[in-house]
Amino acid sequence: MATRQRTATHGDPIRFVLDGEIRSVDGVAPTRTVLNFLREDLGRTGTKEGCAEGDCGACTVVLGELAGNDVRFRAVNACIQFLPTLDGKELITVESLKGEDGALHPVQRALVDCHASQCGFCTPGFVMSLFALYKTQHDPSRSQIADALAGNLCRCTGYRPIVDAGKKMYEYGAERQDRHQHWMNCSFSSANDRELNQSEREMIERLRAIRRSKTLFVRHGGSTFYAPLTLKELADLRLAHPDARILAGGTDVALWVTKQHKDLPVVIYVGDVAELKAIDRTDAGIDIGAGASLTDAYDALVSTHPELSELYRCFASPPIRNAGTLGGNIANGSPIGDSMPVLMVLGTRLLLRKGRRARELGLDEFYVGYQKTALEPGEFVERIRVPRRDPLSLLRTYKISKRFDQDISAACGAFCITLQKGKVAEARIAFGGMAATPKRAAATENALVGRDWSEASVKAAMAALDKDFAPITDMRASAGYRCSVARNLLYKCYLETCGQKAPTQVVEFAM
Length: 511
Description:
- By secondary structure, this protein is of the alpha+beta class.
- The chain contains 17 helices and 20 strands.
- The chain has helices at about 35-40, 105-115, 125-135, 140-150, 160-180, 200-210, 230-240, 255-260, 275, 295-305, 310-315, 320-325, 325-330, 340-345, 440-450, 455-470, 480-495; strands at about 15-20, 20-25, 60-65, 70-75, 90, 215-220, 225, 245, 265-270, 280, 285-290, 350-355, 355-360, 365-370, 370-375, 380-385, 395-400, 410-420, 425-430, 440.
- The strands form five sheets. It has a five-stranded mixed beta sheet.
- A hairpin with a 6-residue loop joins strand 19 (about 425-430) and strand 20.
């Protein structure tokens, strides 16, 4: 497709790399999904539509992005990625994996030889998730392979042969790399343990060639899409378009288009603002840009707070975490967001920006009602500031859902208890799924402070939770179940932090 100059009708062309060629696309709706573009415009039907909401993984593709002097590969869901977000990136689909000699990629060959496909509908998505793993980890464990596939659903195989293929693909990769030096076939764990081959250097040069130096502007019909490159450009655009929809990873906003068929007249995409992706570790704590992916943000948090590792593993799926952002998760204001309770108990503060003006606000003050925040018109979340934790504090988080992988919480609880000489000096407790917003449990905290960290004190505080929350019954859980599980989670926190095992039986209510 020929490149066109910016015009009042279409704005700028969207430029990305596909199969080693630079593609230039214009005249398309800014909210057209990558999935529909691949299937309907390019006829690349290997990428499937299963759910159109990022749950099943049949549409998984891999994006390659410049990361310093190397390329970062990550799996994402094509069904909830808008086409302009491809600008400046490499798009890799299942059709891209064919070798120069027409042979199967090691990932594909392993799936065939391990009999890991039956009806085949989900197979391309599994191929791409495994390909992303192949490009980023050298010798993953079985558990790591399973985690990498958490965003892919299969109704036929029972998953075992697919996981087997995840181990086998490295054997085939070693064989193929001996014969072919094609960048698709080289597996590695980081940029530091290998030398770039010629194909990889050429890929990097192509990505550099299409790197923009100004805000991307796309217009089609009644829709306009902006993708600023700097924080100042973003702040100016936000002031000029206070009613515009801010787009980060699209893991929620895209569903408004694919499921609710909403029109989004003006979209401001923050995924290309470098300042918003920065994560800084300081003496004061961790300072996370609102545009940092959930993958990167949680990697930073878990490195400092290893107690969050299980919450991280059961938070959505790798493709969702790769696309979604911590700032988007917070600004979305969902009452069941899993990030907010633990960030609240850690004392997180938000840096909010409106034009040149910046202000800080505690996360526990940010939510003013159901899906309503304290953001003013023209204001946005710039950074998430997680302070250094008191070394004497005890941190626990628990997510309650019907399945471990990729499920929405019925309730999510976080507890940060600071002890001095056996007494509770400070208690910070927060829950998601228990109210119209993620919320601190003030009455419960007050019931603990100044008392012994003992079973008697904790059981008294458990009763105070009824003053803090009056949950509803919905499709995920009954009100009674939520109240019971909240009390039990506080008790579980006590038992774990006293060196005892969690109880084998708790009071149960039907969900």
